[in-house]
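REVIEWER CHECKLIST
Item 1: Sequence provided? yes
Item 2: Single chain? yes
Item 3: Sequence as submitted:
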Amino acid sequence: MFGDLDISLVIILIIFGFLGAFLNSIVGGGGLITLPALLFVGLPPATAIATNKLAATLGNLTSMLTFLRAGKIDLKLLRPIIPLVFVGSMLGAVTVNYISPNLLKPLIFIMLVIVLIYTIVNKEWGNIENRRVITKKNKIILITVLIAIGFYDGFLGPGTGSFIIFAFIIMGFDFIKASGNAKLLNFTSNFAALIMFLFLGTVNYSYGIIMGLSMIVGAFAGAKFALGRGNAYVR
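Item 4: Structure as written out by the authors:
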């Protein structure tokens, strides 16, 4: 499986896998590093997206378990949301085979820039926990947004972790708890999309496993870094 891989290609997968997972464990957005890397080494877009899901699933599982052990994931809140995100992501993974994901790339960067600007302007945003009362209306809005993000993750992926984090911050969670909750939902959406891509046969196992092993190390290091530094530094 790995015998015919060029050493320079392997190095690229390892370096960018580690960097992507490290970043993703802290603030999300690791796919903005790993997906372009997979495209750079020559994978077609659909295969790159599918392979990225294999690697990202391993990375997100690692960071999710690290945050879970630290008590930064609200399982009671997320339990009814997980199945909806799972289904949304599977639908997105199916859709990617019929619509070019390149149409969404400019929108991703625009959204991330908007979020970055808002974070800089709102200096206390996500720094302290100030949860809003989760009314029925707020719950419906949050669930709808997270299902849409799950669909997007299955369809393309980069920036998903960041979008989920900011959804929780808007609801009043601090950065660390928002990041922890995002890891569980991001793992759910990654795993759901991966199942569909495996069924469709679009995953490059050699590239995915090499990058995935590197992402396990990067995710563990990133999660420990986030938990050790706290909200202010992560923000």
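Item 5: Key structural point noted by reviewer: The longest helix spans residues 175-200.
Item 6: Recommendation: ____
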